[in-house]
Design a protein that fits this description.
The protein is α+β, with helices and mostly antiparallel strands. β8 and β9 form a beta hairpin. 23% of the residues lie in helices and 28% in strands.
Length: 279
């Protein structure tokens, strides 16, 4: 059951072995050793300068220019969204949020959409959040007791499809795809699709904070037991088999994909800085 509400660089470093600091002070000087017991001439020992340098790999969490273009990465943006949604859900449904994630939803026409996903004891919330105006635009409610199948796997497309995407995702079913009408199947703006498909947000690896809230594995590990508990606590749900978790390819049934080709490559589904306008 689903309802929708409106609302780099490289840095060289020096590596020194233990005791090398003392030797480095006299690397260019001659050291004389004399033995008072024999008449040998003093022996000279010379050392040449030897400094080992290594180059650090770029920090995988630092992509400053790319990260700054996404409004979600601006200071305080994600924290404000969390507080807004936490207070709204507490006031409207009285439920307590168990987890908070920033993911990319892929609709049935292969369009990417930036989404905040929240899990409570009874409900899965999918939120369209405007990180520019810091406000919730749309909030979809899905009862966890209605979810009967989760699929994990790589994205696959029809053989004749011209718009394919790599990578893996997760699909959550709360209804039967056979029951979906032909009109909603071919309507790119339809909200009657009985499933939701997610993949990781582009900012997943820009910082440790986003790594925690954008990893699909973390979302899955919290979602599955929440759904199982909801099934146990739901009296008369009529689902004897409970939740099925499958590992199989995720089909996205698009063919020409012109709309998603333009939208995804221009990141139209994200709150993004798109350059200055005017003078």
């Amino acid at each position: 059951m689903s309802t929708i509400g409106s609302f780099e660089g490289f840095q060289p470093v020096s590596l020194k072995q233990e005791g090398e600091d003392q030797l480095s002070e006299t690397e260019h000087l001659s050291m004389e050793e004399e033995d008072p017991g024999n008449g040998q001439e003093p022996r000279q020992i010379s050392r040449q300068s030897s400094v080992t340098k290594s180059t650090l790999h770029p920090n995988p969490y630092r992509k400053p220019y790319t990260a700054r273009t996404y409004f979600v990465t601006r200071p305080g943006a994600i924290e404000t969204a969390m507080e807004d949604l936490k207070s709204h859900i507490a006031e409207t449904s009285g439920e307590t949020i168990q987890g908070f994630w920033l993911l990319t939803e892929i609709d049935h026409w292969n369009n990417e959409k930036e989404r905040i996903v929240l899990v409570t004891d009874k409900t899965l919330f999918i939120c369209k959040y405007d990180f520019l105006m810091l406000s919730c635009v749309q909030l979809q409610h899905i009862l966890l007791s209605a979810v009967h199948r989760i699929c994990l796997g790589k994205f696959v497309f029809p053989k004749m499809s011209l718009d394919k995407r790599p990578g893996e995702g997760l699909r959550i079913y709360w209804g039967s795809s056979e029951e979906q009408s032909l009109l909603s199947r071919w309507n790119p703006w339809s909200t009657e699709v009985p499933y939701a498909t997610f993949t990781e947000h582009p900012m997943t690896y820009t910082s440790e904070q986003f790594l925690r809230i954008c990893k699909l594995s973390g979302f899955t590990s919290k979602l599955v037991p929440a759904i199982q508990n909801a099934h146990k606590n739901s009296a008369g749900s009529g689902r004897e088999k409970g939740l099925m978790v499958l590992t199989q390819p995720i089909l996205i049934e698009t063919y020409t994909g012109l709309m998603s080709f333009i939208g995804n490559r221009n990141k139209l589904g994200y709150s993004l800085a798109r350059g200055s306008i005017g003078f």
